[in-house]
Design a protein that fits this description.
Length: 216
């Protein structure tokens, strides 16, 4: 075998050189990369653990959604209760706010309860005898409690649609007649009451229009 001589007069046989050239380059992962790879491998091999992680984060997500959706109903309830007699031009406007706020709070709580029950029923179960992980895909829609909550929610939604129509009639009918002062005027209405009712009804009406338009 004929040797090959390099610039430094180092003798490297052709077979050894080919072995050196063809050796793969081995890279070492950093500790953070190793931890991430190990975690990903665990999640792939154990889907139950991955679902448990998601299930643990659901309570915080539910609380955040609850607080975000319940602010307007709380304001409606408070303003309708506090200023129940402060709108002689149409006493039904504060009543509309009070009822809408009450029903809105109940609807939000029931909807979040449905989400919680569905997430709880979807948690994985482990079969120890067969040493296999089985994931329960049920959503809990067949449980009696969920059926009752769903029925009540649908009834409240229908009521809210009808109540919203009446509220719009009461609010917009006195648009040109409402007076914010003096208080003894027959067409007086507390500015906070009427403006909040008008703005909330307008935004809800626009939201309905956007949803209907986007569904076409």
């Amino acid at each position: 075998m004929k040797p090959t001589v390099t610039n430094k007069d180092t003798v490297i046989h052709l077979e050894e050189r080919s072995t050196i050239v063809n050796d793969p380059v081995v890279t070492q992962e950093t500790p953070d990369e190793q931890v991430a790879m190990n975690a990903a491998e665990v999640d792939i091999r154990n889907p139950a653990a991955a679902l448990n992680k998601v299930g643990k984060s659901l309570p915080m997500m539910t609380i955040g959604a609850l607080l975000g959706l319940i602010i307007i109903p709380i304001l409606q309830l408070y303003i309708g209760w506090e200023y129940a007699d402060a709108c002689p031009v149409n006493p039904k406007i504060p009543k509309y706010l009070f009822v809408a706020g009450t029903v809105g709070i109940v609807s939000v709580i029931l909807n979040q309860l449905r989400v919680y029950l569905a997430a709880k029923s979807a948690q994985p179960s482990v079969d120890i005898t067969d040493r296999k992980t089985t994931i329960t895909a049920a959503t809990g829609t067949n449980s009696p409690l969920n059926s009752v909550i769903t029925t009540i929610t649908y009834a409240l939604n229908i009521f809210m649609v009808v109540w919203f129509i009446f509220g719009c009639i009461w609010i917009f009918r006195v648009w040109n007649d409402v007076k914010y002062r003096p208080r003894n005027h027959p067409n007086f209405c507390q500015a906070l009451v009427y403006r909040f009712a008008y703005i909330s009804a307008s935004f809800r009406f626009m939201a309905v229009v956007v949803v209907v338009a986007s569904s076409d």
